[in-house]
Design goal:
alpha/beta; Rossmann fold; six-stranded mixed β-sheet; four-stranded antiparallel β-sheet; globular; binds adenosine-5'-triphosphate; binds magnesium ion
């Protein structure tokens, strides 16, 4: 039954994920993400960000606790219902998850097919309408000319944009991007983050992005969640985040985590507001 609160995309209650050998990856996670919200996840390596993403895209089940997507209890979903829910969630990963030896068009249209290894895609039997869909998606990520190139002949940043084009074709309700810019240079990183934000704004998609760059999280997202040792360390409007919170999140090594002067000043001005 779908009632309760139709503006909620995700609701997590006391989520815990324990892997083999008692490895607690997530513990007592309580979160709500509304439809159309843009949220950044930050936190040190091993904090549990990827595990959280895998729960959010239903490729992993929690050990305990409850997860609702669009007011549906994920635990109750199986077979067709689970596939339908998964199809409403588009994922972009650091490793792109593209098929390297295929042409760009195949990888982009995989978003539409739901699976890449169909006879149709292997034989390049695309209808003109499909070609146009792929071309438009590539246009939106700024590289329409790459349609027929081999994916493994593109740079890391270009491949990341192919992965985003694939999500555009999938047209999901939610976009989850787990460290989507780790393998690209800083200027391209902000271009890709801006692209994700634009897609979320223009198409009313919920966007959750994990980032190792605190700068990007603070610069582009209205809400930032800090994850540390499997727990939510803070979950705040960006303007309320202080340098002390970031120091705590990274156990005193925050300065080593790339932060530009401008952002540093802004964070400090929040931490130590000027008097008078
Ligand atoms: N499949 C697994 N089996 C066992 N332990 C796992 C598994 N996946 C993750 N873990 C453990 O869970 C914890 C959280 O890992 P996770 O990959 O979620 O962290 P992360 O925040 O994404 O880190 P990073 O920033 O390095 O990507 C780590 O201690 C990790 O070793
Ligand atoms: Mg990770």
């Amino acid at each position: 039954m779908r009632t309760v609160n139709s503006t909620q995309q995700y609701r997590l209650a006391e989520i815990r994920k324990v892997f083999a050998r008692d490895q607690v990856a997530l513990d007592r996670i309580v979160l709500t993400v509304c439809r159309g919200e843009r949220v950044a996840l930050i936190g040190p390596s091993g904090a549990g960000k990827t595990t959280l993403f895998r729960l959010l895209n239903c490729t992993l089940r929690p050990t305990s606790g409850k997860l609702w997507i669009d007011d549906e209890d994920v635990e109750s979903l199986n077979g067709k219902d689970l596939r339908r829910t998964r199809s409403r969630i588009g994922s972009v990963y650091q490793q792109h998850n593209l098929v390297p030896r295929l042409r760009v068009i195949h990888n982009v249209l995989a978003g539409q097919l739901g699976r890449w290894a169909t006879l149709q895609s292997l034989l390049s039997l695309f209808k003109p309408a499909d070609v146009e869909i792929a071309r438009q998606a590539l246009q939106q990520v700024g590289m329409p000319e790459k349609l027929l190139e081999r994916t493994d002949e593109l740079s890391g940043g270009q491949q990341q944009r192919v992965a985003i084009a694939r999500v555009l074709v999938q047209n999901p309700d939610v976009i989850l991007a787990d460290e989507p810019v780790s393998s690209v240079d800083p200027s391209l990183a902000s271009t890709i983050v801006r692209l994700l934000i634009e897609i979320s704004q223009n198409r009313h998609k919920t966007l959750i992005v994990s980032l190792h760059s605190v700068d990007l999280a603070l610069a582009y997202f209205p809400r930032v969640i800090g994850i540390k040792e499997g727990r939510v360390s803070f979950d705040l409007e960006t303007s309320k985040i202080t340098e002390g919170m970031l120091e705590d999140l990274y156990s005193g090594n925050f300065r080593d985590h790339s932060m530009t002067e401008a952002i540093s000043e802004r964070v400090q001005s929040v931490a130590y507001p000027s008097v008078g």
